[in-house]
Give the backbone structure.
Amino acid sequence: MFQHGKRKLAVSILALVSLIGSTQSAYAALTIGAFAVTSDGAYTVTGAVGSAFSMADTTTTGAITMGAGTTTGGIAIGGNNMTTGALTLGGTGMTTGGTTIYGGTGSTGITLTPGTDGTTLIGKSDGTGIITIGSSSGTQSVLIGNGAGASTVSIGNATTAGSAVNIAQGANASANTVSIASGAAGANSTVNILNGVPTAGTLTANILSGIAAIAGTGVVNIGNSDRVTTIAIGNVAPDAARTTTIAGGNSVVVDTINIGTGNTTAADGKTIHIGDGTPSGSGTNLVIIGSVADVASATLIQGGNAAGAITLAPQTTGTIVIGATAGTGAITLGSSTAAQTVNVGTGNGSAVTQVVEIGGGTSATSGGKTVNIANGIPGASTTNTVNIANVIPAGTHTVAIGTAGTTTGTVGITIGSSGAANHTTFIKGGNVNIAGSEAVRIQTAAAGGIAIGTSTQTGTITL
């Protein structure tokens, strides 16, 4: 009974003192010695308007506890009446001491909520310590700028000293997934990477370009969507010389580069342009396909079944060269085992002269030219037919064989075969009967001889 009365007396005294302190001069000081106060109801301590109110404001090493026994009630520091006043937890004199804020398990366990246009600042302007947001060893989501409004999220965006920004940089023991603007898009999305305007230095963007891996594989997918309509790589006129390299590293394994290899069901479904722009001024295009290294490399150019399936078409005065100047390999035009026509110089000219030259080069010293036409061995019941100027002309056919021999060199012409078989050599002429322009003329130099038949001839010679 006495203890209960004592407690009520102490509360009454403290309440009275507090009341006196709140109604008297703003400069009054109230000091209360060590004691414990327990209230049966709400307890309010109010300072005078405009006065400073301090609790545990002297140097102490003891602990200061507020609301340690609270269970379901709330603890408020500051309130809705604060306008320009500042609320400070901790101080700049702290060294190894820490400021710990615990929260509950709900969706608002810890909430930092400034005014609508207020700024939330975490970290000192000249701080060198680590700021960690989300350090759980369990499964956790860290959401930044995740509200429904139009957010601007900047990371390392104000420094001029250079920033190191790492995302999913740890050596992972399980799969990492880093998604950037990968949600279902309901409007335009633009992702800019290293897209600033440089005023100095070099911009370098590395994608899957780390050091040689010990194990595992890498896959780079760019534009692998059926809704992508334009993929541009280096598609701007450069200010300086530029090199674009695709699979250019030295390889000890097989590199396969596929360009336009998918199957299409549309006409002209795959149109591939390589260096077909129109240079201006002194500009030129140089396109190199394949290698001339002395190894068993192969360059295969394929076409379909259309007319001109494979076309080599230079500009009007351009030349086409097939074969190396010092080449020793065979050059084959037409190697089909089926019925096929190989056309050389078959264009229809108009008021022009076309020249088809075969074996026309000059052998400087030894060697020479051997030109074989229909020189394969016909099989049984087959026929090789060689036609030279063998159509009815509307103008004039002139066929010259070995006519350029003069006083140097030797010209030898053999027509037909003298083998003991049913060979036939037929030389025809027209109906011209003018001296010097006969239909058939056999003519030698002034001292040349003409022989018809041989010394061992047994067949009939008819003149």
User: Anything to note?
Assistant: Residues 279 and 285 are 7 Å apart (CA to CA). The radius of gyration is 50 Å.
